[in-house]
Amino acid sequence: MPENSDASPIGTKSHTSFSTEVISRRELSTRLLGLTAAFSLAGSHPAWGSLLASTGSDVADANWKPLFLRANYEAVQSLAEAIIPGSTNALVAPFIDLLLSVDNPARQNRFLEALSAIQTESNRRFDTPFQKLSPTQSDSLLAMVSTAPEGSSLLSSFEELRRWIADAYYSSEPGMMELGWTHNMFFRSLPSCTLPEANL
Q1: Residue range 23-38: average pLDDT?
Q2: What digits encode the pLDDT tens for the residues 3-14?
Q3: Contacts by 115-120, CB closer than 8 A, 24 or more apart
Q4: Which segments within 23-130 are labelled E, that is strand?
Q5: 16 close to 142: Cβ distance less than 8 angstroms
Q6: pTM (2 d.p.)
Q7: Using one digit for the tens of pLDDT, what is the confidence trace for 99-108?
Q8: Nearest-CA neighbor of 130 among 139, 38, 188?
Q9: Among 14, 28, 5, 11, which residue's Cα sits nearest to residue 181?
C-alpha cells in the first residue's frame, strides 16, 4: 500500500458522458478488481461480501473509517457526488476505498496521482481543495478539466477518476436501476450451450 494513503490530504453536476455498457454487477466488479472468484451478492455492491470478509471492514458501522483513502476520503466523496449526483447515497466512495484497499500498488498509485492532479488544479484556481469548493466552483473546475486538451495529464487524471466513480456507481443498486435493472428481473431458464462439446 502506498505510504501516502494515510498521510495528509492530497493536495457537476457536470453532465459528462459515461459508458453505460450493460453487464452484470458481478462481471463489473470482477473487471474492477481483476478477480476470478465468485462474489457475494449481499449488500448494495456485489463485491462487498468478499471485500468485507477480506478486510474485516463494515461500512454500515457508525465508527467505520476508510481503509485506504483515509485523509483523502472526503475529496473522493465530494468528487463522486459532483460527477454523478447520488453517489453519496449509493456509497460510491466507501466502495472505491474498499476496492483500492485490496488492489495492487500500481493502480493505487495511479488513483492517488490522478486525485492529486485534480486537487492541485483546484488549489491553483480557487486556493482551496476540491472538497471545500462551492457547487458553482466544482462545476466550473470539472467543466475545465473534462475539456482539457486530448492527451494532457489533467484530462487523463480526470478520466481515471471518472472511470472509478462511474464503475462504482453503476454497480450499485441505484446505478443499476438507472440502467433498467429491477428486483424482479430473472431468467426463466438458463441458456443452453450451442458448442458441440456441450453434447459430449
Answers
A1: 40
A2: 444 444 555 333
A3: 115/10, 115/72, 115/75, 115/76, 115/79, 115/157, 115/161, 116/10, 116/11, 117/153, 117/154, 117/157, 118/79, 118/145, 118/157, 118/158, 118/161, 119/9, 119/10, 119/11, 119/75, 120/11
A4: none
A5: yes
A6: 0.65
A7: 898 889 999 9
A8: 139
A9: 28
